[in-house]
Amino acid sequence: MATVPAGAAECFQHSVHDMDVDSGCFGAGSGTQLNYGLGFLEREFGSELMSLNAVSELLEKVKTETVSVEEQVLTECSSVPPKISASLSAAVEVRCSLENVLQREQCVSSELQQHLQGTRLLMDELGQTFNHVDSMEKSMKYLKCLHYIGELSASVQQFLMTNSVWEAIKAVESMAALDSGLNQSGCSHLLDFLRKTLCFWHNIIKEQLSSDFENALTQLHWPIVSTTSPSATPPAGQEVSSHVEELVTQLLALQTSDDLISQRASASGQGPSSSPLQAPPLCLPIQIMLQPLKKRFRYHFCGNRQTNSLSKPEWYLTQVLIWMRNSSPFLMEKIQPALDRAGVTISAQVELCRGLMSLVQEKVASDASRMLYDDVLFCHLVEEVLQFEKELRTNYSYPAVLPGLLHILLEDAVLQKWLSVEKKMAVEKMDAMLSAEGAWTSQYKDISDMDELNAPECAEIFMTLLQVITERYQALPSPAAQLKFLELQRELVDDFRIRLTQVMKEESRFPLGARYCAILNAVNYISTILRDWGDNVFFLQLQQAIVSLGEQEVLGGLGMMEMGRLASLEGSLFDGLLSLLDRLKGEMLGRLLDFLMRDIVEKARLYCQERWLSVPPQQDQSTMSLSSSACPMMLCVRDRLSGLHQSLSRPLFHLAWQGLADRLDKFLYRDVILSNHFSDGGAAQLQFDMSRNLFPLFGHHCRRPENFFKHVKEACIILCLSVGSAVLLKSVLKQSDQDKDWDGPKDSPPESTLNELGVYCLSPCDVLILLNLRASLPEI
User: Fold this and answer.
1) Which of 184, 205, 198, 193 is CA-nearest to residue 152?
2) According to the per-residue pLDDT averaged within each range, which of 87-101, 608-622, 636-650 is highest?
3) 279-311 as b/e, with b when 16 or more CB fall inside 10 Å?
4) What pLDDT is stored for residue 567 in this prediction?
5) Boundary (domain end) residue, out of 383, 410, 437
6) Is the residue at 3 inside a domain?
7) I need a labelling partner for 715 at 20 to 30 A (CA). Which of 389, 551, 687, 735 fits?
């Protein structure tokens, strides 16, 4: 390797230093530059810092990089200025265009302002002219309308002077039409003049026609108030009938203006106020016909006459029904044909009923508010109103869409009073019926097959009370009000159930007593009736009303599942009460059966201790007799069944004897059969006691009583098998028990063998136990 002389190396170092200073690559005058240079030399030469060849290579490399960098700098400097110049030129052009546009906008704006200032005065002058024209046009119309009203008024006067009633009515109808057309007008003075003119001429024509119509009705002996011959109408000449028909037609033509005037008077507070339930106004002929009836009604029932008595609402209610009935033939023969020929769809009978109903509604509303503090008078009024409403809808074909009297009973104060009185009266009746002498005896006890429910008198009276309440509120037009009465009925049923429970606890010491059985019959009777009500159309409608109205509080805050069951008709309104009554019935029936079994078990004690092993075999079963130790038990069962049959209703007795049979079957199987060993004679005697004596006691109530003693019947079959059959059966059962763990092919199951013998209830293990109780079988 060639070695660089010391002088050359020093010269190279100075050259590098000068290059760094001139090029500025490392930053002039900085210690960092020196460090960078030294580090660069160290990386490039390492230990060969003094090598000449390395210096030559480095110098060439630096020159090449310098030339490349200079070319890049020159290229960039030559390409940037044209682009920047083009951008600046475009910006200058846009700025000039924008300045031109702004100058044009200022010019146009100044010209527009000058034009507007020039036309403003013209617009003001035109506006004043137009307003003057409008005012003149309105004045002309006002004067024309005023002149038209004067012409109509003059024509009405002229027509009345010439007795041209039809023409006068047409002119009045034109006034009424003009009044309706000007209803939204702000000309208050013109409207007031028109309405006063209309009212003036209308009243004159109405008074004239009313007077003529009243005279004609008088000739026909109206009103017909006599009750001697309500169906007979007095004969009338053809002239009178034709005159009545003409007057009816003219009054109907005057109806529009009359309704308009009545509405104006009602709105201004001068006429009778209209209620939300008020129907359209009555037709004028019927209004005139009602005047004498109204006078009679107010004279007798709204003054100081003795007939105006709070305690006798039936007087005016009956009188109104009599007027309706007596007037019907007259209306159908004299008035209805005229209405039909006039082309109006009005029923004279219905219109008269509507007019009379307005009198009755006013009277009932007044009396009801005065009776809120007298329960007796209030109850009587409600009864009479309900009866009146029923007869009105049934016998007089009064439309259901028209209001009757029931809406008066739905007012808050009256409805709450009604509910409180119903509850108070019902509780008093419950107290009286439960304390009555014959409360716990059936009304039909001396009549055989008359009442299979065998309900005591108190239960029948209570359910009749609920039925009467239902009939009272069933006709109400409001489902919400009906639901309130339903809740009251539910409260009464629950109250009566609690009372029955209290009496039952007092009688529970001797469940076979007549009163205990009567309480059980009452519970069953009430639950049966409530189940029937659950399928009744009326209560199904109430059920849907609860779902639609969301009245969950009526049923004690039902959850979504219960509401869903009601909506799908899977449940009923009385499910909660029925569950409580069924639980009470189950508890009472269980207590009764427990008492019976204690009595029977006491009587069967000797029979349980019978020595069945020592009973000799009997060759002839016809010579066998009942075991002497079984006689007390059999007599007890017979007497108790007979007593229950007389005391309990048929459905309850059916449940009772079946429950007794089930408990007796288990008792005999456990305490008589499984607790003893049997000889062949003992098994035969047991079967004789059961099949010929016990089972027939229940045979009066079913065809095959042995099916209710399955354990005893099947045990007797096993105990009475012949020795060979018993041994074979025992071996089969044991072999089957040993083959349970065997995986190979098995014989038929032992149950099939038992079924062939008539054994279905006992298991193979039970049969083995019974076979082991037979003393005559050898050990296997």
Assistant:
1) 198
2) 636-650
3) bebbbbbbbbbbeebeeebeeebbeeeeebeee
4) 63
5) 410
6) no
7) 735
> What's the pTM value of the predicted model, to 2 decimals?
0.74
CA 775, distance to chain mean position in Å, is 71
Buried b (16+ CB within 10 A) or exposed e, 720-733: bbeeeebbebbebb
**Angle at 353 (CA atoms; ends 360, 289), nearest 5 degrees:** 100
Is 349 within a domain?
yes
**What is the dihedral sign for C-alpha 10, 11, 15, 16?**
negative
DSSP 487-551: HHHHHHHHHHHHHHHHHHHHHTTSTTSHHHHHHHHHHHHHHHHHHHHHTSHHHHHHHHHHHHHT-
Distance CA 702, CA 698 (A): 7
Give a three-class secondary structure readout of 351-416.
HHHHHHHHHHHHHHHHHHHHCCCCHHHHHHHHHHHHHHHHHHHHHCCCCCCCCCCHHHHCCHHHHH
Query: Rounded to an integer, what is the distance from CA 49 to the centroid of its chain?
Result: 108
Does 387 share its domain with 438? no
Region 486-510: mean pLDDT is 94
d(CA 415, CA 466): 18
- For residue 103, being part of any structural domain is answered with no
Question: Which two three-digit tokens encode residue 419?
Answer: 């509910």
What per-residue confidence (pLDDT) applies to 4?
Answer: 43
8-state DSSP, 744: S
Angle at 158 between CA 154 and CA 159, to 5 degrees: 115
* pLDDT on residue 617: 81
Residue 640 has pLDDT above 60, yes or no: yes
Is the pLDDT at 274 greater than 80? The verdict is: no
Residue 100 sits at the vertex; the CA angle it makes with 94 and 106, to the nearest 5 degrees, is: 135
How far is residue 567's CA from residue 558's CA, in Å, rounded to a whole number?
A: 12
Question: What are residue 746's DSSP bridge partners?
Answer: none
Check whether residue 471 and residue 355 sit in a common domain: no
Q: Cα angle at 262 between 258 and 265, to 5 degrees?
A: 140
Domain of residue 709: give its range: 612-631+661-739+746-773
In this structure, the chain runs to a length of 780
Residue 650 pLDDT more than 70?
Answer: yes
- pLDDT tens for 147-163 read 999 999 999 899 989 88
Residue 397 pLDDT:
81
Instruction: Please say whether the beta carbons of 388 and 359 come within 8 A.
Output: no
